[in-house]
Write a structure and sequence with these properties.
- By secondary structure, this protein is α+β, with helices and mostly antiparallel strands.
- It has helices at residues 7-30, 37-50, 121-139, 147-161, 254-262, 268-274, and strands spanning 54-55, 71-75, 78-80, 94-103, 106-115, 165-166, 172-174, 181-185, 202-205, 208-210, 216-218, 225-227, 233-235, 238-241, 248-249.
- It contains six helices and 15 strands.
- It is globular and about 45 Å long.
- The N and C termini lie far apart (41 Å).
Length: 278
Amino acid sequence: MIHIRTKDEIEIIRKNALMVTATLTEVARMLRPGITTLSIDKMAEEFIRDNGGIPSFKGYGPKNNPFPASLCISVNDVVVHGFPNQYELKEGDLITIDCGFYRDGYHGDHAYTFAIGEVSEAISKLMRVTKESLAKAVAAAKENNRVGDISFTVENYTNKIHGYGVVRELVGHGVGKKLHEDPQVPNYGRRGDGKRLKEGMVLAIEPMINLGTHKVYTLEDGWTVLTSDGKPSVHYEHTTVVRKNAGENLSQFGPIEEAERANPNLSKAHLEEVYSEA
């Protein structure tokens, strides 16, 4: 069932999405070589609970195999759903942090990819193009468009124009009282396909784009998804509400980007490219 949210519901989701922004901003400030992904997760869970929320991801999924952490932390060739552990970040790593915040009956959900230290021009470009594709997809989330218009926008920009692999097994989704709701929002497709968009629908739009092949595989843990060729993957996500003329982000990248720019441990080459026009 697809839900059209009221103004009051949207404001609750907005507040929760902005708490995800706040959590990811705290993460951006602490990233550095030598820090473990488990310590990042511990900080995030404390921050979420201290602000009256519940981590959306912890315990999510089947009863016999629930997700064990508050954050999905995906490093380098991990596309999504990486488990926080004792891995210590090192110079040149890519790390995607995906986070959910639940409070007052609704979820907020979004994700951001960071570069630790210096990365290649190819990886920096992959990050920039993927983030740009999300902005274009949000603009396509307008009333009377269809889900396929969002999907086409991502695929056309990342694959047809730039030649990257678009992950097909994993999709965006509706978000609200449940973390994952209808409709599914793939990152590939044709204009005019899928459900018609109506103002008030809330979507998690999340391009997952690979430097190499689109093909992926899942580890025996049932969660961790990796690229088949071992090349890096990038993932950005916004909680977005469908509006008349273009989608409106309920989550925001601005505070995260500010913390990213201020952190001397994050890639300066990447930041100079991304923010060269800022």
